[in-house]
Write a structure and sequence with these properties.
700 residues, alpha/beta, Rossmann fold, 5 domains, six-stranded mixed sheet, three-stranded mixed sheet, 23 strands, 44% helix, disordered C terminus, G-protein coupled receptor, GPCR_3_mtglu_rcpt, glycoprotein, transmembrane helix
């Protein structure tokens, strides 16, 4: 019973009461035990032999209110004598029957036995006389016939169901005795003095160690307690029921084999068959609840305790709640944890914006690249520093590619591409700063007295300037990639959530590499303010300023959004793509528009320094302030020249469009160049030569 209690507790079965009955109990004792069980358990496990089981059925037949569902051991098995006449009261009982195969070889052996040939068994003639009710002795008395020895043993023959177990037991005893004789006597035949007196304890130890194959093919072995090994034990689960014709029989509904129970139809069918049986004092707990057992006589009663939302119920022997691991959630039955579906990018809207901006930006960059390459030898492209334009377009393409990479499912390659967003944006701003500084230095050099060509304005110098400005951004990106490798990892922002994201989705890993790019953005804004309306005829720095202001607004809106959104990578990539697209569109867009829509303006004349220059990088001096040491006569001379040219209104193609005044100072010479609004017209000789041409009166 102790072993049964342990196994029952391990399987979640509560033993409410225990009653002991002696072998072959009286009806009064059985009824008293049933009355003590009345009102309590509904199922009784009977560890009893056949006579005790029949006494229980007989008492339940006399007292119908003492009805119990019985589960009996192999002492009942499938015996007919236990239920004979009491079939309705044994209906539904479950019994265990030791599995014993049918021995067909024994039938052949048994059929050939004869009292004349089987002389090695001294009791066989007595068995023959008892079976056929005859005698081999002629003086046996009146009414007893003489045995002929030709009677058939197959008459009324039925093989004992447990015959295979008997054969196994006999073979086990023989093997143990053989091993003990060999251990005591060695190779000598027969018995020896060492076996006497016979030691039962030694024989028991040899019996526990036997291991052999029985004639039916089964393996026979025992454990230290003398019981068959669990993996070798086989039982049939029998259920006593009636068929459609009303005949009572034992039906096999399950099998115990190799330490596991297999029920007919599976566990669901067994659950349906047992739905009519309820607990003593408590209803079954619902989904997500575990049964807290009582104490004392109420140990089979329980209270249902609900589990937390992200926990499952643990079955006995240690019932309770068990939280699911991160990234898992309970199933519908709340009995096991299942992996949560993997999310990525945090949401659909940031991912859609990043995809849209990246795709449109890449298309724009490709279109601008084709146009500028086609018109690469025209003044409008040459004046823009073709090397810086190429670097600007390549950096912008990297920004847009990073935006597309941030919108797809995180992987090693896409995470590495996302890390290129910050240094690529720094490359965009570096190209804009280098171009603006180039134009500003050119104009500042013109204002100097005397004018000189600035240094470091070649194409190679511009590329080196771009590299110097963008190198800090690449250095910070390399540091970030070393500290936080660009690989995809499964994160758990909530206990039941699994989010696939790139490693390093933190403010430090993503915003620190942006610092050099933001510094360059500040330089762009400063240069745009100080070089506005430069040069006058194209106003290129106005577009640079517009690009800087637009990206500033974008980044001012980015930081609050970055702080509250979960899709940080997609949000960062979308902002980088928008900033790069604004710089490309506003820096190179006017030139592409001139190339495609205003080809007549794609001349060298339209990209020279115009009549009015405002350069806030160098010192601006007006015409009067430029000649502090000039005399009054010299000032009048300059004024008279201005008036004279101003009265002309137009000048010939071969004439002068400006008046230059030079005067000597105490230590150096001063030159004043005054430009006037004017237009060029064809000379009189050219107009006379082509008076019939439609270009004769057209402005050149």
């Amino acid at each position: 019973m102790a072993a049964f209690r342990e196994e029952a507790a391990r399987g979640g079965v509560c033993v409410a009461r225990e009653e002991a009955l002696r072998a072959a109990p009286s009806p009064r004792e059985v009824e008293a035990a049933l009355r003590r069980l009345n009102g309590g358990p509904r199922v009784a496990v009977c560890w009893c032999e056949g006579r005790t089981a029949r006494a229980l059925l007989d008492s339940m037949a006399r007292e119908p209110y003492l009805r119990l569902n019985l589960i009996a051991s192999d002492g009942w098995a499938d015996r007919r004598d236990v239920v004979d006449g009491l079939e309705p009261h044994a209906r539904g009982a479950l019994t265990l029957r030791i599995r014993s195969p049918y021995l067909h070889d024994f039938d052949d052996y048994y059929r050939t036995l004869s009292p004349h040939t089987n002389t090695r068994n001294p009791w066989f003639r007595e068995f023959w006389e008892q079976k056929f009710k005859c005698s081999f002795k002629e003086s046996s008395g009146q009414g007893v016939r003489l045995c002929s020895g030709s009677e058939s043993l197959m008459q009324n023959y039925t093989q004992e169901p447990k015959l295979a177990l008997v054969v196994r037991g006999v073979y086990a005893l023989a093997h143990a005795l053989h091993d003990m004789r060999q251990a005591k006597c060695g190779a000598r035949r027969g018995l020896c003095a060492a076996l006497l007196p016979f030691n039962v304890s030694q024989y028991q130890r040899h019996l526990q160690r036997v291991r052999f194959r029985a004639p039916d093919g089964a393996l026979v072995a025992f454990d230290d307690h003398g019981d068959p090994l669990p993996e070798l034990s086989e039982y049939d689960v029998m259920r006593f029921e009636s068929d459609q014709r009303g005949e009572w029989r034992y039906v096999r509904v399950g099998r115990w084999r190799r330490g596991a129970l297999h029920l007919r139809g599976g566990t669901r069918a067994a659950y349906r068959r047992g739905q009519g049986v309820r607990g003593v004092c408590s209803e079954p707990c619902g989904v997500g609840e575990w049964a807290r057992a009582g104490e004392g006589r109420a140990r089979c009663c329980w209270t249902c305790v609900p589990c937390p939302p992200l926990a499952i119920t643990v079955p006995p022997p240690a019932p309770g709640c068990k939280p699911c691991l991160p990234g898992h959630r309970p199933d519908l039955t709340r009995t096991r944890c299942i992996p949560s579906p993997v999310e990525w990018s945090g949401g659909g809207r940031p991912r859609a914006i990043a995809t849209l901006t990246g795709a449109i930006g890449l298309i724009t960059v490709c279109f601008f690249s084709v146009v500028l390459w086609h018109y690469r030898k025209t003044p409008v492209v040459k004046s823009a520093s073709r090397e810086l334009c190429a670097l600007l377009l390549c950096s912008a393409a990297s920004c847009h590619g990073a935006a597309l990479a941030g919108a797809i499912r995180p992987a090693g390659l896409s995470c590495a591409a996302v890390r290129l967003a910050a240094p690529a944006l720094g490359g965009v701003y570096a190209a804009v700063v280098a171009r603006t500084m180039r134009v500003a230095r050119l104009v500042a050099a013109v204002e100097k007295r005397p004018a000189a060509r600035p240094r470091l304005l070649s194409s190679r110098a511009q590329v080196w300037t771009w590299l110097a400005l963008s190198t800090p951004g690449w250095a910070m990106a390399a540091w970030s990639a070393t500290s936080w490798p660009p690989v995809a990892r499964l994160l758990h922002p909530g206990r039941a959530r699994s989010v696939l994201a790139c490693a390093g989705e933190t403010a430090t890993a993503q915003l620190v590499p942006l610092a050099p790019a933001l510094v360059l953005l500040g330089a762009c804004v400063l240069l745009a303010v100080r070089t506005r309306r430069l040069p006058h005829n194209l106003n290129e720095t106005k577009f640079v300023g517009a690009a800087a202001y637009a990206t500033c607004v974008t980044w001012l809106a980015f930081f609050p959004l970055y702080a509250v959104t979960e899709a940080r990578t997609a949000c960062l990539c979308a902002c980088v793509s928008l900033s790069a697209g604004a710089c490309v569109l506003l820096s190179l867009g006017p030139r592409v528009w001139v190339c495609l829509c205003r080809p007549e303006r794609n001349t060298r004349t339209h990209f020279l320094t115009a009549t009015s220059i405002r350069c806030h990088l160098g010192k601006y001096r007006s015409g009067r302030a430029a000649r502090p040491s000039a005399t009054v006569g010299e000032s009048r001379e300059a004024s008279s020249q201005t008036t004279e040219c101003g009265e002309c209104g137009e000048c010939g193609a071969a004439g002068r469009c400006a008046r230059v005044t030079r005067w000597e100072g105490p230590e150096s010479a001063h030159v004043l160049i005054v430009l006037y609004p004017h237009r060029h017209v064809a000379p009189l000789s050219l107009a006379h030569y082509a008076h019939d041409s439609p270009l004769a009166d057209r402005n050149l």
